[in-house]
DNA sequence: ATATATTCGTACCACTAGGTACGATAAATT
DNA sequence: AATTTATCGTACCTAGTGGTACGAATATAT
């Protein structure tokens, strides 16, 4: 890292704090949902003018994509950390359940799942990133389940691909429930019941 | 039924076909989602003027509620028909899975679940009906499970209330998946896996 | 025929959405 | 000091939202 190698160009120095705006947008889209936040409102929150926003991000789509990128880097990456983390198959599954159903981070739901649900309404760039993250997540779930099967921790006749879709669906359901205000305990109970299909057969 | 006992009042005879408008609104909200349909668009589809709509329904909220009422009467009532229908517990569970995951009626998803997801955006009247239907559905699921438990068809330590929430959640998930365009076979596979928690313990 | 009652739709309202033209501003370069 | 370059924000644009004022239209009652 060569510091911020003084690129002192000509012109008026820019006062727009890109990181700050992206962070504000991420939190706003996250809490209120993409439909519940307008560029006008975002500009007001950040204390900047609309042309500044459009100069930096090209439009609503660009800002939304940047917000989703920041979200993926700060929140979604923790998921793969749990998937590849230590502990047995059952322990890691339980850690995932705790994370999605109980962690305060998801008190207002998940920006990614909200954007995925509002897929047709987002711009092209945002939508493209959504499907990319979707594919990555699926692949991570599939790899997690495949290693469990190879290790003999997950017996049964359920194909790995179906299991990955199932994990995706159930975690998404839990996150949507939390966004809807369902009590944490209920979300956890439903999710635990859903995930019991991965462990019940061998145990009893 | 005393026919349409000529209530020939004074004034200009009304040309607005209430049923037709409700039906058009119901299908539009159903397919495009409540966010995707404006009153202007609805008026254009029905070939009427906006004041006519407001005279009849008082506003967007009134029309949306009427559309949801029509939907509940024509589609949602079929669910309780399946719950109270003939067959064993497992057979009725399977019938429900077929209905939600495969029936062409739900090719575009479910109006009720879409309205429930967009809860904060609908008007007061519509929202009230949504929560009422929600409660009825929950109660119907709970009664269904209670009778299964009483009849010895559903053993296990899962409380009835949790089972009802679980059914609600999983059926809602299936309907949302169908609305999102997920292939019928995949929706069915995920739903079957989720519902296996009701039968697996005793079988194996 | 005239008055009354009721429904009709044209044309508007205020408001918000995403997006932009353009002159003011503030630095480096000459 | 004058010029160039780049970013700034005020003020506007078009399109679309839910909603309404009001006069024209069409029936019955007098």
Condensed summary:
The structure is a homodimer of 204-residue chains. The first copy, chain A, is mostly helical. Chain A contains 10 helices and no strands.
Outline the structure in words.
2 copies of one chain form a homodimer. The first copy, chain A, has 204 residues and is mainly α. The first copy, chain A, has a domain at 72-203: Tetracycline Repressor, domain 2. Chain A is built from 10 helices and no strands. Chain A has helices spanning 18-32, 39-46, 50-57, 60-83, 89-102, 111-117, 124-150, 160-179, 184-195, 200-203. In chain A, helix 4 runs parallel beside helix 7 and helix 8 runs antiparallel to helix 9. Chain A is elongated. The mean pLDDT of chain A is 94. Chain A binds chain B through residues 35, 117, 119, 121, 158, 162, 165-166, 169-170, 172-173, 176-177, 180, 186, 189-190, 193-194, 196-197, 200-201, 204, and chain B through 35, 117, 119, 121, 158, 162, 165-166, 169-170, 172-173, 176-177, 180, 186, 189-190, 193-194, 196-197, 200-201, 204. Chain A binds a DNA duplex (30 and 30 nucleotides) through helix 3.
């Amino acid at each position: 890292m060569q510091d911020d190698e003084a690129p002192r160009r000509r012109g008026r120095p820019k006062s727009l704090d890109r990181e700050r705006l992206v962070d504000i947008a991420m939190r706003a889209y996250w809490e209120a949902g993409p439909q519940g936040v307008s560029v006008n409102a975002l500009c007001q929150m950040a204390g900047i003018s609309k042309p500044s926003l459009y100069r930096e991000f090209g439009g609503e789509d660009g800002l939304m994509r940047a917000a989703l990128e920041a979200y993926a880097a700060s929140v979604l990456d923790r998921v793969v950390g749990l998937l590849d983390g230590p502990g047995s198959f059952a322990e890691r599954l339980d850690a995932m359940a705790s994370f999605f159903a109980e962690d305060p981070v998801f008190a207002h739901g998940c920006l990614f799942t909200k954007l995925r649900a509002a897929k047709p309404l987002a711009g092209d760039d945002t939508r493209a990133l959504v499907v990319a993250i979707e594919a990555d997540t699926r692949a991570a779930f599939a790899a997690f389940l495949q290693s469990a099967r190879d290790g003999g921790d997950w017996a049964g006749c359920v194909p790995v691909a179906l299991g990955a879709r199932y994990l995706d669906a159930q975690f998404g359901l839990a996150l949507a429930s939390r966004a809807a205000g369902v009590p944490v305990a209920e979300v956890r109970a439903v999710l635990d019941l859903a995930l019991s299909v991965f462990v019940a057969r061998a145990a009893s």
